Structures are given as structure tokens and as C-alpha cells.
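Before relying on records like the one below, remember that each one covers exactly one chain. Contacts with other chains, cofactors or solvent are not represented anywhere in the record.
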Amino acid sequence: MTSTPFAPRGSMTEIEGGASFMPKFDADGLIPVVTQDATSNEVLMFAWMNAEALARTIETGEAWYWSRSRGSFWRKGDTSGQTQTVRNIRVDCDQDVLVLKVSVGGDGGACHVGYRSCFFRSVPMGASDKALTLQIDATKLSDHKHK
């Protein structure tokens, strides 16, 4: 098991202004992670990490996540080839959200349904009296589903 090199949560002054890494995990032991392309800053995906997934990511330089549905770790790219080499990890001011800046391998995608980004649809703005229809804003990279 990978060790978790995180400082215990300190005072708000230490958390918000200090140099110690004190990530705040929720009641389920998870922290939300937004993943972006390191070059373009395009948002690629959203996922969760627990302390061990975060420690593995820091140790290996590869993105590891925690699957809530499967109850297990997954290294991005193990089945899809869409590896994520971590270039930088950003932490927000109160250390309860992370942003991974990554370089993507494989076909350059991050979405398990075949798009570069999981955020390939947009919601139309403005009042409507009927159900909203999402706008698809991207082209699929592949027709096969990634896991």
C-alpha cells in the first residue's frame, strides 16, 4: 500500500495560506478532481480520489482515481489506452478540490464514450417551457466505449 504523505488538517490560516498539503476528504474519504489538458487547459473529465489514489498519483506521475460505482482504484488508460501523465496538481484555497493538469496518451481522449472531453455537450441558456435538448459540441474520436 502506498503511504499518504499529507499533513493533518490544521487551522484555517495554515490550510488557506500555509505551505503544507492538507487535502480535505469528504465523509466517504473522497476528494473531487477536475482533470484538464496541460497545454490547452481544456477540461477533460471529473472524477474522485481517495487518499491512496492521490498518493499513487503523486508517486507514479500517472492519474489514479477511485471508482465509487466499482469500489476500486483505476489508473486512467489501463483499458482504454487514454493514459494521463500528470504534469501538475493544483489545490484550491481550502484544499478540498484538486485540478490535475495532464498529457493524454492513446487517441487523445478522456471520455469513456469516445470523446476527447467528458464535457462534450452544452445546455442551452434562456427560459423554456419544454424539456431542454443538449447541444453536442464535439466530434467523437472513436465509436468504441472506453472503460
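The domain at 28-108 is CATH 3.10.20.810 (Ubiquitin-like (UB roll)).
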